[in-house]
Amino acid sequence: MANQDTQQLDQQLRQLFGAHTYSEGPLAVSGAGRRFVGLDLCHPLNLDQVTFILDALSQFRIISIAGQDLTAFSLAHFERFANHWGAPVPHPNNFLRGGKSAQSDGDSDGEFELIPFENRTASAVNLTFPDQLQCLAHQSPAVLVVTNFRGQIVGDSNGNRPTQVGRGGSWHTDIEYEPLPIYVSMFLVHHAPMARTAEGGNWVNAPDSPGPYFEGSSDELMKRRMRLPLNGETAFADTAAAFSALPTSEQAELEKVQLRRRLNIQDKGWLAPLVRTNPRSGIKSFHSPIWASRPRVRPPVEVDSMSESESRAFLDRLEAHVLQERFRYDHLHQPGDVTLWDNYMTLHNSPPSKGNIDSIEDARLLYRLSCKGESTLTLPRHDPEDWLKTHVPGGYTTPPEIINIG
Ligand SMILES: [Fe+2]
């Protein structure tokens, strides 16, 4: 972003949010990412403020609104804010379908049933460090508690608690396996790991397992997939910059590509474009250019008119392109930050993380909300009931007491 553009952005920011506010960025070498400092999201946003933030995300793909005061900013404020970006979607960890985990490959059309709060992750989290760290109060099924501690502490026969390091996830976008994918996801950071006792002054050592991936990808692709951050950062890849870096002729060919996605292996599925154009900024990007983003949980996608092996080769090549260093960004979390990303313009991955922890120094606690559909300048949203029934589990809408919170 040119200096002059940055000055204009900050000038507009100060006019809308106050003279004390400023921005930092780009956060990524690709040009993605911007941090906004001094914005207080406890207050309802006016039309111009919402427009500014929507425009910022459409341009920067990832934005972080830093430093919310967690003694005042609640998960209700967070969910009200999320409503501007789309309809908040209950997370599969918080409900059952037909009596089964909504996350598993199975009867995804079964009856919707909320898991009682006392059986959700948040309740287990609260048992781990009872006097030091408790989840922010909430009941909303849209809030996903993302954490590396759940109250279950496993000791060995000598009474020691060996910590374990999880290997991180697979590269993906959120809920790309439904006909209407998630548009924006966002984290509110409550606690980030501060211990740096691993090799190289990191929080954890690099895991040596190959991750959850199917066998058969090239060594180079596996190397890029497994190069994950070691201090609890969320790993991002900028699919807009990756698209923009290709020759125009290749871009034109890729824009014609349709992917057949399906929820379950036996489904006929539907076709979805590989390349999307952001309606606000006009920036083009890849949406989930990955053959199997959820190995053994959701079926791999097919490129329309290609066989399974051709589809895999085509998409593995694109994934390797997108995961190059020059399009990557590891976002370090800090308490109070609200960090948003556009799932049509980025990939992300969860980092290797320490489990079975007994020190608050190792605690990672974030809350995630994800939104579907259209953004809106004003609240409450007015999503039609039949649209909600089709695209949002249980037809959930944020209750008025959250929208109207002071
Ligand atoms: Fe995710």
Please summarize what this structure is.
The protein is α+β, with helices and mostly antiparallel strands and 406 residues long. The protein has helices at 3-17, 47-60, 75-82, 121-125, 219-226, 239-244, 248-254, 308-322, 385-391, 400-403; strands at residues 22-24, 34-37, 62-65, 87-88, 95-97, 100-101, 112-114, 144-147, 164-166, 184-191, 234-238, 258-261, 270-273, 275-277, 284-286, 302-303, 328-331, 338-342, 346-349, 353-355, 365-372.
Structure description:
The protein is an alpha+beta fold and 406 residues long. It has one domain (22-393): 4-Layer Sandwich (Double-stranded beta-helix), CATH 3.60.130. It is built from 10 helices and 21 strands. The chain has helices at 3-17, 47-60, 75-82, 121-125, 219-226, 239-244, 248-254, 308-322, 385-391, 400-403, and strands at 22-24, 34-37, 62-65, 87-88, 95-97, 100-101, 112-114, 144-147, 164-166, 184-191, 234-238, 258-261, 270-273, 275-277, 284-286, 302-303, 328-331, 338-342, 346-349, 353-355, 365-372. The strands form 6 sheets. Strands 1, 2, 3, 4, 8, 10, 18 and 21 form an 8-stranded mixed β-sheet that branches. It has a 3-stranded antiparallel β-sheet with strand order 6-5-7, with no helix packed on it. A 3-stranded antiparallel β-sheet has the order 17-11-19. It is globular, with a radius of gyration of 21 Å. The two termini are 36 Å apart. Bound molecules: fe (ii) ion (FE2). Fe (ii) ion is lined by residues 172, 174, 348.
Poorly predicted ranges: none
Instruction: Give the integer mean of the pLDDT values.
Output: 94
Largest sheet: 8 strands, mixed
The distinct bound ligands, ions and cofactors come out as: fe (ii) ion
CATH class term:
Alpha Beta
Strand content: 15-25%
Q: What's the CATH H-level superfamily name?
A: Clavaminate synthase-like
- Judging from the principal axes of the Cα atoms, what is the shape? globular
